[in-house]
Amino acid sequence: MTNPIVLDVNNLAVSFQTFEGDVKAVRGVSFQLKKGETLAIVGESGSGKSVSTKAINRLLPVKNTLIESGEILFEGKDLLQLSEKDMQKVRGNDIAMIFQDPMTSLNPTMKVGKQIAEPLIAHIGLSKEKAKARAIELMDLVGIRNPNEAYKRYPHQFSGGMRQRVMIAIALACEPKILIADEPTTALDVTIQAQILDLMNKLKKELDTSIIFITHDLGVVAQMADRVAVMYAGQIVEVGTADEIFYNPMHPYTWGLLASMPTLEVGKKQLYTIPGSPPNLLHPVKGDAFAPRNDYALGIDFVEEPDLFQVTETHYAKTWLLHPDAPSVIPPEEVRRRKEKYQTVRMGKACGERIGGGAIGSGG
Amino acid sequence: MKKYIAKRLLTAIPVLLMISIAAFIMINLAPGDPTNLYVMPDATPEQMEATRRALGLDQSYPVQYMRWLTRALRGDLGISYSTRYPVLPILVSRIGPTVALMGTTLLVSYIIAIPLGIISARKQGTWVDTLLTGGAFIGVSIPNFFLGLGLIYIFAVQLKWFPTGGMLELGGNASILSVLHHLVLPVAVLSTFYIANMTRYVRSTMIDVYGENYIRTATAKGLTKQVILTRHGIRNALIPIITIIGTDLPRLVGGAIVTEQIFQWPGLGRLTILAINQREYPMLMAITLLSAVVVLLVNLLVDMMYAVVDPRIKYD
């Protein structure tokens, strides 16, 4: 992929000041987003995936948030250094967001059409009439029927899926360069979820927008992502192309995630779960944050934080298992199965073919 | 909507009846006998009995109530025992001053309190917020009689800037300026509470609203703080604020009993005290009923305002 980089996050660290002390929610995250690609960030609740992306659009509460270090480069500017006024010009215009709760993310006392028209008036400077016309076009684009009628309706007159379509219309109104989707389908049922994902994929192709897709649903990742970053305890522990993460994972945490995913092959066997729970980031983390839950943990994992090892040009993992001196371990059965598939299809992949829809059989 | 209003007005009838019965019972349960006030101290039991019969107080309570009710339905609220004037015109003459006093108070209060509450909420946790919430706490805590007497002492007795009480100057100068001059101190006393109360409500409502996801959406759209506040914040905060205004409004006629008394304001509050002291039963019934009617009407008005402000509320 030789597309230009649109967003470059370097060593971002965010902590929240609470009564108990500082919670280090994000501990040195770096990633790049290329033009037109979809980067999925996966991880369990509290892994810092939402916080990292809210930091990009500076939507974290100002009062108790501390950006400890890092820079977020967008078009040569460090977003963290912008004034609030300049940031307002970026939000919704260059970088737009879709959130998890379509039921509460729209203003209940404002007509949905007006809510879509608002960014058009604020950023592009359209007149009210032109903004209205464009909003109706956008509603049509995201698949809302009778957009002329729907323009005048209020959010409570829409279903969850329709509201999320409205949110997408708002986000795409100014044709942003980056769209951050923070678990946009979590609150929706599965059929609606599929429709929304299809819509996002379609619009992405039409508008050539880069997407950061946050989710904890690997099935969704398989359907959406070009590249995947796996987060754990405020750090990216593995990053690679979707194929690399799904079929040649290197980090034991990624193994755990994949093994704990229901597949058609698993049948009636008990589903794997990663033992324990993530560390409380109120306390400093020693060594590898995942070590206490890791069946494959080495002695050094409890003492020293692993380096980020390069696997391929696009694939990196933060685990001591990749160190030349590390003992070789046998990954869980599910992961072995995937790796075999990866090896056998590798030849085909060299010819530009993707391994498949990924994790769940249904994936496109 | 019309159907809804009609329904609400119809249901108000039994409510008013129940209120009038409750008021009648409570008034008659209170100790004291109005006849004492209308006979000489050395009156004989026979004279007492004659007076009582003349006032209609010799009848059983149900008969008295039914007699009052049938007259009230015809618009006759009885006569004042002490002045022998009909109750209704006396009552009406007191509405104006009270509406002037309470109307000014509420208007002034809201104009001051709503911005203060918004500032307090937006500056949550800063010294501005601490100052405002602290001030509001003092404002709701300070008793009106104390504040009233204090202000009279300082601004009327010592500085002589304002009159100590009353609504008109001696000689009956009823110019607007003169009335406004008389209004300053009582309005200051009364609005202290309303400002403090409303500031607290607006603050907590705005904090709630700013925690809502749609404010996050508005921010993510790149709207300015001004637009977020006016088009997304205040509009949604209005719903709970209207509820508070709804509880304030009936006091327009309920009046401010203590404050009207302190400032000798010729309104309904003072009339109430007077009526209680003189056992003016018909007057008390009329005042209670008037308050009840206003409360019911304001409630209806508030419910209709909800429908205006909140598109989710519809009455069909």
Secondary structure tally: strands of chain A: 12
Average pLDDT metric of chain B: 87
Number of helices of chain B: 13
Give the topology string of chain A: H per helix, E per strand: EEEHEEHEHHHHEHEHEEHHEEH
Helix share of residues of chain A? 25-40%
Mean pLDDT across the residues of chain A is 85
Low-confidence stretches of chain B: none
Can you count the helices of chain A? 11
Distance between the termini of chain B: 6 Å
**Largest interface, Cβ cutoff 8 Å:** A-B, 30 and 24 residues
- Quaternary structure state of the chains depicted: heterodimer
Strand count of chain B: 0
Helix content of chain B: over 70%
Strand count, sense and closure of the main sheet of chain A?
8 strands, mixed
- Envelope shape of chain B: globular
Q: Tell me the name of the CATH class of the domain at 95-265 in chain B.
A: Mainly Alpha
Class from secondary-structure proportions of chain B: mainly alpha
